[in-house]
Amino acid sequence: MGRVAQKGRKELKDAPIGIFDSGIGGLTVVRRIGEVLPNESIVYIGDTARIPYGSKSPQTVKNFSIEIGSYLAEIGVKAVVIACNTASSYGLSTLSAILPVPVLGVVGPGARVAATASKNGKIGVIGTRGTICSEAYQSAILANRPELRVYAAEAPLLVPFVEEGHLDDEFVKLALKLYLDPILEKGIDTLVLGCTHYPLLQPAIEKYVGDKVNVIDSASATALALKELLKKTELMKDSGTVLKKRFYCTDNPQGFRREGSRFLGKEIEIVELLPLEELQRAGSKR
Ligand code: DGL
């Protein structure tokens, strides 16, 4: 490899990873990525102006994903992680086809870990209406092991509960009863948390389902899959280079900063406003 090519590779390795979500939820994925890949710089975009994605149509979610993915590629990220389960369900194949950098969603890694973990062959999945209707988890789990049975449930009340700080109270218990009882009755031994917000409910969910059910969090699975991807594509940052994390959102940066720390597990110092027009402009070039 010549000098120029070597410099190119070093610059590429030092480039940040672009991560996006409909809002603050994807910070649960950033948190896990930070644990597994502590040297990597990150640019995070939370589309707070257009949240929720979970109740929007497939085409709308796909369009938003194209806009944000295109913007991240334009600013020079070395890889894109779609931290949002709904956007992964509807946007991953298009973004993988149009972006010049590797793209990773949260559905594939979560599905793979669940398919490997299940002993009795019965897996439950909970997520937003969009994620569950897309059948992305169901197909990804069956692609790993076609003999498995997948029982999926939309759990639309859980996102607002988490956003309002209800993590383990009577409201949560009632919602878990409503959503989980029908799939627990099928005898599942594995449950996939197919939404950015659910890791905050993990202690309540684990208590509810009991120790016979293995609870899989897609955020952790994605962080490990990203590490593999960076190794395989020789894009892993060398240690010793300066680490940066930048957080952008499309509306209400103060709210993002205030609420986001619960999802990230630490204070966020600066959140910058990214006007929606910037994303729309990037998307319109595709
Ligand atoms: N981030 C979304 C997901 O993981 C949940 C919030 C929303 O509906 O936008 O599907």
Features:
single chain, alpha/beta, Rossmann fold, 6-stranded parallel beta sheet, 4-stranded parallel beta sheet, 13 helices, disordered N terminus, binds D-glutamic acid
Low-confidence stretches: 1-5
Order of helices and strands: HEHEHEHEHEHHEHHEHEHEHEH
CATH topology of the largest domain: Rossmann fold
Which sheet architecture does the biggest sheet show?
Answer: 6 strands, parallel
How would you sum up the global shape? globular
The mean pLDDT is 95
Total count of helical runs of at least 4 residues = 13
Question: Helix fraction?
Answer: 40-55%
Task: Order the strands across the largest sheet as they lie in space.
Answer: 4-3-1-2-9-10
Structural domains: how many? 2
Q: What is the name of the CATH architecture of the largest domain?
A: 3-Layer(aba) Sandwich
Structural class: alpha/beta
Bound molecules: D-glutamic acid
Please give the oligomerization state of what you see: single chain
Taking the alpha carbons of the first and last residues, their distance comes to 32 Å
The portion of residues forming beta strands comes to 15-25%
- The CATH class of the largest domain: Alpha Beta
The value of Rg in angstroms is 18 Å
In total, the number of strands is 10
